[in-house]
């Protein structure tokens, strides 16, 4: 079931999504419905459901069943064409970002061609005046700071060109103590209290964070902090050719090729417990299954009955989630008339925003595939409700019939008010949709954090093997802009607050790369080669705690990171976080970082044996499954090569990283440890290094319960299954040659060659395979 749990923080959370209505099937009497027995049931074929199906289909084949309430796949990802068979344009999600390594890797895996856009500029119209936001520098007199001074003069605007008023506002908001967020739980109220009515108006005009009211201040600020790196100047927009729906289509095709069964126009009507585990009713099916992954959003879930569904709906976490409606209207034109405006000039517009009317936002395609269509989203209202949403709802109707004359006239009027110096012609085609649950956030009355909602979604009912997946339940989106979905048992919020010291030593690594061995070696170095350090009664896992790990149901005061905060400087600890995900203090303080890596083939073998060693993972696969998980970049702490590159590319700019391979230690222990000791400020004799070598040798470590993590509590507690093998298992170089089939080896070689090309900065990192 571990694979299923991880999917609840799947790649779907990287996307901004939209939604259409449900195409209901005719319901037949229950005793006349087809009965299906499925090993796993996935509800919904949006991104979350499709990715889960794509991931599980190779393992479960025809035992995997998928139901979808609509006649089409994709959920809130929708691409439409002007005419049947024509090129498509995004009505909802339209792009990914260059820094989203996992979703970019998935695109490569699926064979989806991508177009990358360079500099992006947004035109802002506010109270009749025009300004610009850009990913690069723009003249101060044209920027958003000047807009603040000109249009919102009573706001505390930045008085120079070096600092950003919006950045200052966000910093002020995120620095507020928790009690202020409780007192001003509504985000709109918080903005007014902090910056005044004019300050809130400026914030609304200059940022994409626009809510009329009724949403949680704490949840919004957590999302802002989580996405802080996403819109940096180094990020670029990446557009899939064929639209975001290419992800859905290709994942569905792959899943069906593996044998999964998909049933459309079959909304879940009831979810109940049964003798097999669960019973799910649809209009024409009764499905019995021991496991369910549901990607239904809260709005759709409201109409589902049954004791399991009722248990979900009664949860305070569920009741605190607010569905935010979006409006999108797309138009196709005979010419790109906006490029004739003096406002366009020599800038490459990607968006126009104006809150002077219900126009809200206009998206202009600049990537070649969409630009050739002369298509724009002429209305994009993500404001979360209000009179504008109501107006568009009336004008758009169901969205299925041709656009009304009233809708076209309203669009033309609003565009003409923005582009005052050109004639806005009548569009060839107009299509509009209301996405009633285009996004999700927490209500101001919610008492739960975004992270608590995510944790709840892993097991939202008393019934095991039922989980909720998708954007609605992972409101936070990502961690520190890394866009890698880390396991839910990590204390990432507290890790970011951790204050490292220049005296601290952190061992950084991909899992199963020799972390414990390096811990033992550093322990000996810091003790000047005293063998007593290996027999002092203190386990190596206590001396080197894993910075971000916690046990299920553990109280926060017992979390390792919180215990470490109480320790004096000079702490030693481990982390599997990538460089980008490290707490800021660890990179800024001068703390020593020791990065150990291992050739990817032996890392795969070690990971396989580690998986079968952990009963709680319930891993039922084989070595081929682990090979596939690496090749498909599905690894607990992020893709293998992305992790390596995140550190390796910093080796010239961060003097506090020591690199060492597992094979370096195996092939020349004395020289490697001497270098490491010097880096740690120690000068050891050959005799002292020999002691460390003797005590940390794998045979010796296997017999030392303090190094081998063989304490009775971890075995009796079901954490490790010591009947399989010892924690310190093998430690050889080249075991992959005994374990891999020729097919596995060919697959790994192709993956390694591809990744070394994708990450040219790794070209001088050499792997030793035997």
Draw up the topology in text.
Blueprint: H1 2-6, E1 34-37, E2 40-43, H2 47-60, E3 64-67, E4 79-81, E5 88-90, E6 96-97, H3 101-110, E7 114-116, E8 121-126, E9 129-134, H4 144-151, H5 165-174, H6 178-183, H7 187-206, H8 217-226, E10 237-240, H9 245-257, E11 261-263, E12 270-274, E13 277-281, E14 285-289, E15 292-294, H10 298-301, H11 307-313, H12 316-319, E16 321-332, E17 349-354, E18 360-364, H13 368-371, E19 375-381, H14 387-396, H15 405-418, E20 429-442, H16 450-458, E21 466-468, H17 492-497, E22 505-509, H18 515-526, H19 540-543, H20 560-565, E23 572-575, H21 584-588, E24 592-597, H22 600-612, H23 623-631, H24 640-648, E25 657-661, H25 662-667, H26 669-679, H27 686-696, H28 698-702, H29 705-708, H30 712-716, H31 736-739, H32 742-758
Parallel strand pairs: 1-14, 2-3, 2-15, 3-11, 8-17, 15-21, 22-23, 22-24, 24-25
Antiparallel strand pairs: 4-5, 6-10, 7-10, 8-9, 12-13, 13-14, 16-19, 16-20, 17-18, 18-19
Main sheet record: 7 strands, mixed
The helix tally amounts to: 32
Structural class: alpha/beta
Q: Count structural domains.
A: 3
Q: CATH homologous superfamily of the largest domain?
A: P-loop containing nucleotide triphosphate hydrolases
If you consult CATH, what is the topology of the largest domain?
Answer: Rossmann fold
Second-tier CATH architecture of the largest domain: 3-Layer(aba) Sandwich
Percent of residues in helical segments?
A: 25-40%
Radius of gyration: 28 Å
Low-pLDDT runs: 1-24, 477-489, 712-718
Let me know the average pLDDT.
82
User: What is the C-level CATH assignment of the largest domain?
Assistant: Alpha Beta
Span from first to last CA? Answer: 35 Å
Strand numbers in spatial order across the main sheet = 9-8-17-18-19-16-20
Number of strands: 25
Shape annotation: globular
Q: Beta-sheet strand percentage?
A: 15-25%
Keywords: Signal, Transferase
GO molecular function, one term: sulfotransferase activity
Signal peptide: 1-18
Domain Sulfotransferase: 504-759
């Amino acid at each position: 079931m571990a694979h299923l749990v991880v999917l609840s923080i799947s790649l779907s959370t990287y996307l901004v999504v939209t939604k259409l209505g449900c195409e209901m099937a005719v319901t037949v009497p229950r005793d006349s419905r087809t009965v299906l027995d499925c090993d796993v049931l996935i509800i919904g074929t949006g991104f979350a459901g499709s990715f889960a199906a794509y991931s599980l289909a190779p393992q479960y084949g025809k035992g995997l069943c998928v139901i979808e309430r609509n006649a089409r796949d994709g959920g809130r990802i929708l691409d439409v064409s002007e005419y049947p068979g024509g090129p498509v344009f995004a009505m909802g999600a339209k792009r990914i970002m260059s820094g989203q390594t996992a979703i970019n890797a998935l695109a490569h895996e699926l064979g989806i061609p991508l177009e990358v856009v360079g500099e992006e500029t947004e035109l802002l119209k506010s109270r009749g005046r025009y300004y610009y936001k850009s990913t690069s520098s723009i003249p101060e007199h044209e920027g958003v700071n000047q807009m603040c001074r000109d249009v919102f003069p009573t706001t505390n605007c930045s008085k120079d060109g070096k600092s950003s008023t919006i950045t200052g506002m966000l910093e002020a908001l995120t620095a507020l103590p928790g009690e202020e967020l409780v007192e001003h739980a509504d985000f709109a109220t918080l903005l007014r209290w902090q910056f005044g009515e004019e300050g809130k108006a400026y914030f609304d005009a200059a940022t994409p964070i626009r809510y009329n009211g009724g949403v949680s201040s704490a949840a919004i600020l957590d999302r802002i902090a989580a996405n802080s790196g996403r819109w940096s100047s180094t990020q670029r927009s990446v557009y899939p050719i064929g639209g975001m729906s290419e992800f859905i289509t290709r994942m569905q095709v792959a899943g069906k090729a593996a044998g999964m069964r998909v049933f459309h126009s079959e909304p879940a009507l009831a979810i109940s417990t049964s003798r097999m585990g669960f019973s799910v009713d649809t209009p024409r099916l009764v499905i019995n299954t021991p496991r369910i992954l549901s990607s239904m959003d809260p709005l759709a879930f409201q109409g589902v009955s049954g004791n399991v569904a009722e248990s979900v709906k009664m949860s305070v976490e569920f009741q605190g989630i607010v569905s935010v409606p979006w409006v999108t209207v797309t138009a196709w034109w005979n010419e790109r008339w906006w490029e004739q405006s003096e406002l366009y000039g020599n800038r490459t517009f990607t968006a126009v925003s104006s809150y002077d009317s219900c126009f809200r936002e206009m998206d202009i395609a600049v990537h070649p595939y969409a630009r050739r269509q002369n298509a724009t989203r002429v209305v994009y209202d993500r404001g979360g409700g209000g009179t504008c949403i109501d107006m568009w709802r009336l004008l758009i109707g169901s969205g299925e019939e041709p656009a009304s004359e009233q809708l076209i006239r309203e669009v033309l009027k609003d565009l003409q008010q923005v582009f005052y110096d050109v004639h806005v012609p009548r569009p060839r085609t107009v299509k509009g949709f209301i996405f009633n649950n285009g996004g999700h956030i927490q209500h101001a009355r919610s008492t739960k954090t975004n992270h608590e909602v995510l944790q709840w979604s892993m097991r939202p009912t008393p019934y095991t093997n039922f989980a909720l997946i998708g954007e609605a339940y992972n409101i936070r989106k990502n961690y520190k802009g890394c866009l890698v979905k880390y396991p839910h048992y990590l204390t990432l919020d507290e890790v970011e607050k951790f204050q490292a010291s220049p005296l601290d030593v952190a061992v950084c690594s991909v899992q199963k790369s020799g972390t414990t061995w390096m811990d033992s070696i550093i322990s000996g170095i810091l003790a000047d080669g005293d063998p007593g350090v290996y027999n002092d009664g203190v386990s190596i896992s206590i001396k080197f705690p894993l910075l971000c790990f916690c046990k299920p149901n553990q109280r926060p005061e017992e979390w390792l990171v919180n215990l470490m905060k109480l320790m004096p400087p000079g702490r030693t600890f481990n982390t599997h976080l990538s460089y980008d995900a490290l707490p800021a203090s660890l990179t800024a303080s001068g703390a020593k970082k020791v990065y150990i890596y291992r050739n990817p083939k032996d890392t795969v073998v070690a990971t396989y044996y580690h998986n079968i060693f952990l009963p709680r993972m319930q891993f039922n696969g084989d070595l081929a499954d682990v090979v596939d998980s690496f090749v498909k970049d599905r690894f607990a702490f992020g893709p293998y090569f992305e992790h390596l590159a995140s550190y390796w590319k910093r080796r010239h700019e961060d003097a506090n990283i020591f690199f060492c391979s597992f094979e370096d230690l195996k092939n020349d222990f004395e020289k490697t440890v001497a270098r490491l000791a010097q880096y740690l400020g120690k000068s050891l004799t050959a005799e002292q290094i020999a002691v460390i070598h003797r005590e940390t040798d794998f045979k010796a470590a296997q017999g030392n319960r303090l190094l081998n993590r063989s304490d009775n509590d971890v075995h009796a507690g079901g954490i490790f299954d010591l009947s399989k093998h010892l924690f310190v298992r093998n430690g050889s170089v080249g075991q992959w040659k005994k374990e891999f089939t020729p097919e596995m080896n060919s697959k790994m070689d192709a993956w390694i060659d591809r990744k070394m090309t994708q990450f040219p900065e790794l070209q001088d990192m050499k792997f030793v395979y035997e």
